[in-house]
Design brief:
Layout: H1 8-12, E1 16-18, E2 28-30, H2 35-38, H3 40-56, H4 58-101, H5 105-110, H6 118-124, H7 129-144, H8 148-157, H9 163-179, H10 183-195, H11 203-216, H12 220-233, H13 240-254
């Protein structure tokens, strides 16, 4: 007798009987929920279809694999390059920072002919942590030298997770804007400084600067808000007495 192959028509529509462990229980019809587990021919057909898909799309799949490999290799290469740049930048800015600490600001920014200045460190190692830190030093040096626009550019490029240093950078940008007779912009940066991880040690001073800058901008309502925040959020701060006096002054000016 020839062996009849399994087909969907011959078996799938025919309910299968399940033999119970209880001889007295009636047999039940059963339609498998997972036909691939029950039907080896169907499983083989699915495998053939998968192989055919891979064969027909081999170039596309190889291309995708190459993209993944290149992305991983590129990411690892960038990580190594950035670490190398950071080490070189740290070494390059060592002398510049020494000049900065000695208040030799010109040499700190421009270099001394043998060692790079902060300006070159920022431009050559800007993508590294060293370059980021050099932006802060360069911004402070430029501000002290009266180069207010340059100071803003350097300090805006700087970013830090340290809440004290980042808030300080915002405040310095505000100082530069105030020197450029831009009190509204100055007040906005003082506000950013005060609200960046707000704390009772430094936020009151930044709020006081914000209030005075808003008064210069004739935004008396904004000044009152800044002073009032010191009195309500930081009543024990050393700036609270000044804030009370300045608030009264701003209220008088606001009523005119």
């Amino acid at each position: 007798m020839s062996k009849i192959p399994f087909t969907g028509k011959s078996q799938q529509n025919r309910p299968q009987r399940v033999v119970s462990t209880d001889p007295l229980a009636p047999a039940q019809a059963y339609n498998p929920e997972h036909p691939l587990m029950e039907d080896p021919n169907a499983l083989a057909m699915r495998l053939v279809e998968s192989e055919d898909f891979v064969r027909r799309n081999k170039n596309v799949l190889l291309g995708l694999l190459a993209v993944v490999v290149l992305a991983v290799a590129g990411g690892f290469g960038y990580y190594l390059w950035r670490n190398s740049q950071n080490e070189k930048g740290q070494a390059a800015m060592f002398q510049a920072v020494s000049y900065w600490e000695a208040d030799s600001l010109q040499k700190s920014l421009k270099g001394d002919g043998r060692n790079l200045g902060l300006e070159r460190v920022v431009s050559e190692y800007g993508g590294s942590d060293a370059g980021n830190l050099a932006s802060f030093y360069a911004g402070v040096a430029a501000l002290k030298q009266g180069q207010y626009k340059a100071a803003i550019d350097y300090l805006e490029d700087f970013s830090a997770d340290d809440y004290l240093v980042q808030a300080r950078a915002y405040s310095l940008i505000g100082d530069a804007h105030l020197e450029l007779n831009q009190p509204k912009e100055a007040a906005d940066y003082y506000n950013k400084a005060a609200n960046y991880n707000a704390n009772e040690q430094f936020s009151p001073a930044y709020l006081l600067k914000e209030g005075t800058a808003r008064e210069v901008a004739k935004d008396y309502a904004g000044a009152i808000t800044a002073y009032d925040k010191i009195l309500t959020a930081y009543p024990a701060a050393a700036e609270a007495n000044e804030a009370k006096q300045y608030k009264a002054r701003a209220e008088g000016l606001n009523g005119k």
